[in-house]
Amino acid sequence: MRNKIFLFSALLLGMASNSFGQMPSFGPVSEPKQIIKLWEGKVPGAIENAEVQEENIGSRSFFVRTVVNPSLAYYPAEKNETGTAVVVCPGGGYAGLTYLFEGMMTADWLNSIGISAFVLRYRLPNDKIMQDRKVAPLQDVQQAIRYVRANAEKFGINPDHIGVMGFSAGGHLAATASTLFNEIVYKPELNVSARPDFSVLVYPVITMDPTYTHSGSREALIGLDADQATTDLFSAEKQVTPETPPAFITHALDDKLVPFINSINYGCALREKGVQCEMHLYAHGDHGLQTKAPTDTQSFWHDACEKWLRMNGWLK
């Protein structure tokens, strides 16, 4: 898996800008303006364990396996006319974070279209350093959204224009942030909502149903033997309400890691509850749409996403 991620990263760094439709060339990748510590004081539910050390990351870190102290990497857009910001959740099967191309490169793309980005380095489920591994990532994404909203004026952001974006298992985290924002998983000190105003879900894991889930993500987050109540709670398609935020969803029909039915079922659940969504399914692309040949239509999902954001007023 690690070699595959390295190959994807190398491909991305070597591609020209038109390989992504309107996505800019990434070389070199931008550095964040600021690294923000997500929690003041003790991290909720944390267990101190000297054997588990924080993994240092740099601008070329492509896969992060250990997170002890969650953080946000802040990438401000040079010209942000609508005050829109996005909390970005890289994927990695809840076993790591594909930090380079699903985090930093995504932040560069968001900046290029006028959106400020906050790349979330969330905790990965680990019984050695957390009391309840199921809720640790959700705690972090709720806190990230609350932090950005509470500090919106400082960042020049509209507190009603804060979205969440996730890839693969990060898409699952973004979807649970969109459906479980009222779930009390820690005692918040920031008196603002954890509800994102919109979500962008890219080849997302949505369900924990063993029939359709990505088994590695399920095993890491809730365990293969999780009971039905836990399985349902972390299956985002079963938690949709009319208050769930609008979503842009994209997936490839030939995805061999995360079945596209994940996206279909979430989109159908949104429609059933009257929540606006847009879905783009591509014939080719497998898992990791932006790494595929530019001659295929899936390479233009960024363009479709940008148009959706403009249509809904999050971009001008």
Q: What share of residues is helical?
A: 25-40%
Name of the CATH homologous superfamily: Alpha/Beta hydrolase fold, catalytic domain
Oligomer: single chain
What would CATH call the class? Alpha Beta
Count of individual helical segments: 9
The largest sheet is: 8 strands, mixed
Total discrete domains: 1
Number of separate strands: 8
What's the mean pLDDT score? 89
Q: Which structural class is indicated by helix and strand composition?
A: alpha/beta
Terminal Cα span: 39 Å
Layout of strands and helices, then pairs:
Elements: H1 2-14, E1 34-37, E2 71-75, E3 85-89, H2 99-112, E4 116-121, H3 136-150, H4 152-155, E5 162-167, H5 169-179, E6 198-202, H6 215-221, H7 228-233, E7 247-252, H8 261-272, E8 277-282, H9 301-311
Parallel strand pairs: 3-4, 3-5, 5-6, 6-7, 7-8
Antiparallel strand pairs: 1-2, 2-4
